[in-house]
């Protein structure tokens, strides 16, 4: 029986709160706070209609540490679940430190003025969290999150040694819009326009953004082009699994999405430095976000499935083996259950699961932890029980690309 405070009432926050409300034995009291109270009220209404559970709502600017501290002191949660934007991570961690409250998030910190995401800023809180006797769980979404837990599961049960790991993220959904992103457009566009980077032979190998293309036949989705990209779980997996010689991340994109992105980049609309417009400073990418469809509005029209998983090659009982662990999630099923499409669903469910494991004490510790540092088994069981079932396949041969 525990009180939880969720910050961020976007698509991911909405799914997480719906799933928490479905588990009242663990989440006995839920408060949802966001920059705009109206975002929280919409979610609260849907939660009440779908589950019969009433949640509390609050307004907070999570960039403001004092405001968040005051909210935490008022609500007295056992855990703060940060589902706002990566920009707020450090401010919310500071508020958790000040109030000695556990912390969880799904995306690592990014400064607003540089498209650079890395764990160093959050790992720097290790000693302070330890001294305060509190725990931070970083990256409890799908990727990072489930894909990192899949790697731990592979290491624990399927391979004695992992030599190569490829994370394949396919969204086979179609939302019917010319151009839209499935989660926060600003964060999404910053991520996909960054240079590609993968881990090989103990160092990072960089390449141009979205240039290394590879077709792949995804179960229940079909063949799609996927592109080599940098993604934040590569950094923590390289740190916690130093035996892995090569770790890569691939994401699928359709030709129309890439064409729109290329044009937007060429005309300067993805810039994150300020420009003066009508005497006022604006950031082009933030303006672009304002004219694009809200990801949370895509749920009702999105059809198709996501298929995200890990392919690992290594050794088991002296034999070379390649295994594939993946989840398939249907956009329409996710929408029917929570009113949100599968990209929010596949992130919000693991956020709820990580929170449940912290609140029940199944995962505990003092300091700052990445998700792959914990026993994968209870998390994998909960994925099966809470809407994200996974499967394991043995492949005949390692990937040939
Ligand atoms: P949205 O943009 O839909 O929602 C973000 C929410 O945060 C909004 O409700 C917004 O407020 C709120 N917010 C923004 N700034 C503040 C602030 N200063 N104080 C309080 N609230 C604020 O994003 P998503 O729901 O799609 O994504 C949420 C998080 O999940 C992001 O960090 C994203 O990077 C991460 N993510 C992780 C994935 C993974 O697999 N690990 C995959 C997808 C997303 P309001 O509406 O009230 O104005």
TrEMBL record:
<dbReference type="InterPro" id="IPR005097">
    <property type="entry name" value="Sacchrp_dh_NADP-bd"/>
</dbReference>
<dbReference type="InterPro" id="IPR032095">
    <property type="entry name" value="Sacchrp_dh-like_C"/>
</dbReference>
<dbReference type="Pfam" id="PF16653">
    <property type="entry name" value="Sacchrp_dh_C"/>
</dbReference>
<feature type="domain" description="Saccharopine dehydrogenase-like C-terminal">
    <location>
        <begin position="141"/>
        <end position="388"/>
    </location>
</feature>
<feature type="domain" description="Saccharopine dehydrogenase NADP binding">
    <location>
        <begin position="4"/>
        <end position="137"/>
    </location>
</feature>
<dbReference type="InterPro" id="IPR036291">
    <property type="entry name" value="NAD(P)-bd_dom_sf"/>
</dbReference>
<dbReference type="Pfam" id="PF03435">
    <property type="entry name" value="Sacchrp_dh_NADP"/>
</dbReference>
<protein>
    <submittedName>
        <fullName>Saccharopine dehydrogenase</fullName>
    </submittedName>
</protein>
């Amino acid at each position: 029986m525990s009180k939880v405070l969720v910050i961020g009432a976007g698509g991911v926050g909405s799914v997480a709160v719906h799933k928490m409300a479905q588990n009242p034995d663990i989440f006995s009291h839920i408060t949802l706070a966001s920059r705009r109270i109206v975002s929280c009220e919409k979610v609260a209404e849907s939660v009440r209609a779908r589950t019969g559970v009433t949640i509390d709502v609050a307004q907070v600017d999570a960039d403001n540490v004092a405001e968040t501290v005051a909210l935490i002191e008022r609500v007295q949660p056992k855990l703060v679940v940060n589902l706002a934007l990566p920009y707020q991570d450090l401010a919310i961690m500071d508020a958790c430190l000040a109030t000695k409250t556990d912390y969880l998030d799904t995306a690592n910190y990014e400064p607003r003025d540089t498209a650079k995401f890395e764990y160093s800023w959050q790992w720097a809180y290790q000693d302070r969290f330890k001294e305060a006797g509190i725990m931070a769980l970083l990256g409890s979404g799908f990727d990072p999150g489930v894909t990192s837990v899949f790697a731990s599961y592979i290491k624990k049960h399927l391979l004695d040694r992992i030599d190569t790991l490829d994370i394949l993220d396919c969204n086979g959904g179609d939302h019917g819009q010319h151009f839209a992103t499935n989660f926060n457009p600003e964060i999404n566009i910053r991520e996909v326009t960054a240079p590609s980077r993968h881990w090989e032979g103990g160092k990072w190998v960089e390449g141009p953004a979205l240039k290394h293309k590879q077709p792949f036949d995804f179960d229940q989705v079909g063949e799609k082009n996927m592109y080599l990209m940098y993604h934040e779980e590569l950094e923590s997996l390289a740190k916690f699994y130093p035996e892995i010689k090569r770790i890569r991340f691939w994401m699928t994109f359709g030709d129309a999405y890439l064409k729109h992105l290329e044009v937007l980049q060429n005309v300067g609309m993805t810039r994150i430095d300020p420009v003066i417009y009508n005497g006022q400073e604006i950031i082009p990418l933030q303006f672009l976000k304002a004219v694009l469809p809200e990801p949370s509005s895509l749920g009702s029209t999105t059809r198709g499935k996501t298929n995200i998983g890990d392919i690992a090659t290594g050794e088991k009982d002296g034999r070379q083996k390649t295994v594939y662990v993946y989840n398939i999630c249907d956009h329409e099923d996710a929408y029917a259950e929570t009113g949100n499409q599968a990209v929010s669903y596949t992130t919000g469910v693991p956020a709820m699961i990580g929170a449940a494991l912290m609140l029940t004490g199944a995962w505990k510790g003092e300091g700052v932890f990445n998700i792959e540092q914990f026993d994968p088994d209870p998390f994998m069981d909960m994925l099966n029980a809470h809407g994200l079932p996974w499967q394991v396949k043995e492949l005949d041969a390692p990937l040939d690309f």
